[in-house]
Design brief:
With about 200 residues, the protein is α/β, with parallel strands linked by helices. It has a single domain, classed as Vaccinia Virus protein VP39 (Rossmann fold), CATH 3.40.50.150. It has five helices and ten strands; from the N terminus they run αβαβαββαββββαββ. The protein has helices spanning about 10-20, 35-40, 55-65, 105-120, 160-165; strands at about 25-30, 45-50, 70-75, 90-95, 120-130, 140, 145-150, 155, 170-180, 185-195. The strands form two sheets. Strands 3-2-1-4-5-10-9 form a seven-stranded mixed sheet. Strands 6-7-8 form a three-stranded antiparallel sheet, with no helix packed on it. A hairpin with a 4-residue loop joins β6 (about 140) and β7 (about 145-150). The termini are far apart.
Length: about 200
């Protein structure tokens, strides 16, 4: 769907992670692994999670074919459930459009709490979401909160205010808006730091 090149947000995240001397991140909703591979090729260890067993197998195959097995671990996981890691396990967290999946506000708060728990102090949580400027916002069937369904696919849209409500355990360093794809999707790139 998005090709094999790393996303714009992964390139920005890599700069921030390198500046913070990040060695090991958790990636949520890794998809087919384009950003996972990019981080690993730049010497950051990645524990990648995705809901889809098929996606996980694809990332495993790519990892093996590229000889990146020492830098990538991948697992199937439903992110509505508790993360299977000890407190303070990672130097950073990255996710591209994962938060705008069909999560309720309550589920997002729980996920944020889990991310906070598994990160070291001062670690970065960098994520992207589709925002209220997106052309699809308020189109399709309203599923409550800021959730809208089109063509069988539910998207959660974010205002800057909603992003700021997800700061328990974090401070926000920046919210930047950018476009992605031919459509284009209107996204927000969020950089939060654990306090």
């Amino acid at each position: 769907m998005f090709g094999s090149e790393p996303s714009y947000s992964a390139k920005i995240a890599l700069e921030k992670f390198k500046k913070n001397k990040v060695k090991h991140i958790i990636e949520l909703g890794a998809g087919l692994g384009r950003d996972t591979i990019f981080f690993a090729k730049n010497s950051i260890k990645v524990t990648a999670l995705d809901y889809s067993p098929t996606a996980v197998e694809i990332i495993k195959n790519k990892t093996n074919s590229l000889g990146l097995g020492d830098l990538i671990e991948v697992q199937t996981h439903d992110l509505r459930q508790k993360l299977n890691f000890k407190d303070y396990s990672f130097d950073g967290c990255y996710s591209h459009m994962l938060y705008c999946m069909a999560f309720t506000n309550f589920e997002l708060e729980n996920l944020n709490n889990e991310v906070c728990r598994v990160l070291n102090k001062d670690s970065l949580n960098i994520y992207t979401v589709r925002n209220h400027s997106d052309a699809d916002y308020k189109k399709g069937t309203h599923r409550g909160e800021d959730l809208y369904e089109m063509n069988g696919y539910i998207v959660h849209y974010f205002s800057d205010e909603k992003i700021k409500k997800l700061l328990k355990g974090f401070k926000n360093l920046s919210i930047d808006h950018f476009d992605e794809g031919d459509f284009p999707r209107k996204l927000s790139l969020v950089i939060n730091q654990k306090i």
